[in-house]
């Protein structure tokens, strides 16, 4: 709102008040036309207000002059009246002219007349500062304004003739506004403050509301009833207003009513006259305003509630609650859905504590929290609750009140006391029920079922948003026992549906809720367990999978205390057995249509194609299928409880025993009578689900039982000799005792019946474990108890495997029992002859049988069982015989495809034919690409070329029990049959399947598992001569093209073992059993392997990029194999004290390799490799230096000579050290090779390369030679050997570099 100009065209408005900032001093000149346009452009509010004020000039100079004359007359009359009043005005300050900012939104259309220049003037900068965005400025302005108004009012009340002053100041306020006892300036200020609260400029509403509150509260002359009417009249809505103008007027009235309520005058007037209707009128006005627009309802209710809080109970009942508008508002609340009316009713009832008839539609009679949250009442007020969504994203003020009613402090405190104590199930059961807690439980249950699920979650996105907001309000006070009601089935399904769709409108809301939920349970294991169980129970154990989060995984991982883990374990077991959750209706969400991963028909095997069934089959999964999925999650979660827990060994063992018992009961046994069985021996009751557990779940229990036992073995500390009796009970012994105890209960039986062989093996394993336990406890210092302990773990794993796969492991179980029995009789497996049997003995060595048994268990064993096998092999690998080792290596070399090069003769151990090992074929005979993957008839077997041992060919039609073998490795028929049982099964599958893909993959998997045993063997026996045997066989398998063709991971695994466990091992074979000739031959073939070129396949078909890349990678791997093998063999040779003659043969091998390097372009021998050999074994470089110089001079390939310069330089540096102590020896050695060096330099200068890089390389080499010659004082001999032509050529080629050498001649 603007203000009218009070000056003529030539006049200037000036603010001279020292309190105003400089920016408020405005000097403007406007023409008559501009003023008229300014008035015409005011909004409708401003124009209407201007029309109400008489004396405001609309146009023309005469009107301005007339106004000034009238103002002068009024001023004179006012001064005369003041002088008559005992000279009161003489001490007043000098009047200050006041200018009004015409751009001010809150300024009135009228302005102070000339009388404002009198001693009772009102500075208008107060009103400007009330709109400031700075709160301190607004407060200072309001304080200054009220002080000034108080002073003016006091002066006005002291005037004898108030009517004359009122009559002269009609420009300031209307006579009929009811404020007859107020000074004109006060009446003007009130009118301006009321209009100011309707301004949207900066913080005008806040400032002017404060400015209105203070005068009303301290100036008693202001009539509240008149002021109430003035507010309504000044901010009335007319038909000519626009939408924004109407909104500003309504908000202005709201702020004005708020100022009036906070002033305290309403309460004072009631206290002075209890029959005064002012409170009722105020309530009617405020509620009537709230009824106009929805956005006015909540703030209006807050104003009324703030006012009611200051009132005694009596006026609330007799005045506020008797307001007609309020009664009407409450009557319509449930129909239109008015949450603010419900909020007001709750607060008023809390204030008066009386069941008033006005509440009949909103509150139950008589009122109680139980009745309020009853299903009928929640249905009645459902519209009020649902419509609170209009203020989103802000949460309506009603909900904190509802939350406090749902969770009173008594319930929260009681839950806190319980959570401090132990969270054991027994204490919770014995705790007496509290009526308050029972009522709160019923309330929260009804609220979640009726309103949250019935009205919000099944409705729009906005109402689902409200559901999340309500739960966020509940979380800080929510007891753990209420989580099951809050995180209900429908809510969890809604949460999963939103989180599974990232582009959902509510995805951020749900994600934020999940973050807050995780933070809420951070320090409370009870709440964490309750949340975890609720999420998984209502998602059938698939919450993380569906939402693509790690929520449940993180929740479970944060359980670190024994109490928390125990509580989690108890909840999991109860969920499995009690079958508390059975979905009554299928969800329409997409995740609910996923087929169950387990069969519900209690079959023993799972069909791999079960997911591809018809829709009818998927629909028929039903309740049982979902329950099975949930139970499968329970089973899988049990072993993981101990994974992240920070527990003492004793606490961890207690939890392990509880998990073992549960898995054993649910997975191994069934109760023939009822679902509960009591063991008097264990003094414990065991419970099964009411519905029979499917075989698939029983198998899962057994698998998790195996995993738990395997994990316990990994974390166990090795047993020390001599104190085995002091070891506590381990999980294996506890499990076996528990197993035998349950077997003795008549009403309990195994979940599946065993055939005669399996039953016999089952009993034998139980007896074997018992014997092993005794041996472990009684073993002395001479025996390692870890051997028996590892065997016990393997026995238990094998026992469980018999239950998992009937008919497959009975033979292996019998052989393992026999091995253990023989070990008991000899007290140590080392007593057995490790080199095989005598000619007349038919019985194999115990260790050979043990190795065969372990190998037979590997192909179809589970991961826990493989871990136990590896542990057994770790403690027995030092006793493995050569025959047993060769059987393992034979598996690595097995190939389902016959080799192209087959030999008729049988080959014995590699040690028997070491002189022919690594016999590489000539390069001319090879036409294949190294590492090229293709059909076997197009490949040359690199393993033949390297090791000279032809791979064993396997007939495609070999029967399962055939005794015919192309390479029996010195084994008799019985041994071969025992070893080939698992391989024969693979071959049989290959014959029965097209393409043999399954058989090939099984064989690769079997090889990988055997490689793990070989890796353990190499780690434990790195200094034994058998390492060479393992090395030769692994190299042969690595260089076999079918290895790379069948599996790249297999090739990489072999290469990794050779590198880490052989080449980089701290120890190496130092035994003298291996002959020198074999080592020399091995060295020669490795050098040829390192120099072997990469050959392209001679074929018209271009190989794919993938095949080319695979071939190149394999070629680089083989090259590295040759290089590293050379280093390793040389390390072995150096450790042996061979004669000079034998070492000369080693030098001949390197001479041959160097000759091939210089004379053939095909040689791929790397000069860096030779440098490394000479660096590691300097004696080789020293002995070959002269030959190296000669070969360089006579090189057939020019670039080879240049490549060898660095090799010559480094060798020369180590051969001829230049220092004072070795000056004479170095000079002598240099003189010996000076002739060859001169010839090499002449050759280099005579064939100077054209490339700058090569020329620089030659210059660098020759510079080093010149420097050494000069240092050893051989310059004269060197120059003489060069001759005149050589000197001239060197001078032309090297310039100053050679001239500096010549200068040192004398």
TrEMBL record:
It comes from the Eukaryota. One of its GO terms (cellular component) is nucleolus. Residues 924-944, 960-973 have a biased composition (Acidic residues). Residues 1-119, 588-625, 924-973 are annotated as: Disordered. It is found in: Nucleus. Residues 61-82 have a biased composition (Basic and acidic residues). Transmembrane segments: none annotated. One of its GO terms (molecular function) is DNA binding. Keywords: Nucleus. GO terms for biological process: regulation of DNA-templated transcription. Belongs to the MYBBP1A family. PANTHER family: MYB-BINDING PROTEIN 1A, MYB-BINDING PROTEIN 1A FAMILY MEMBER. This is DNA polymerase V family. The lineage of its organism: Eukaryota, Viridiplantae, Streptophyta, Embryophyta, Tracheophyta. The gene is MSJ1.26.
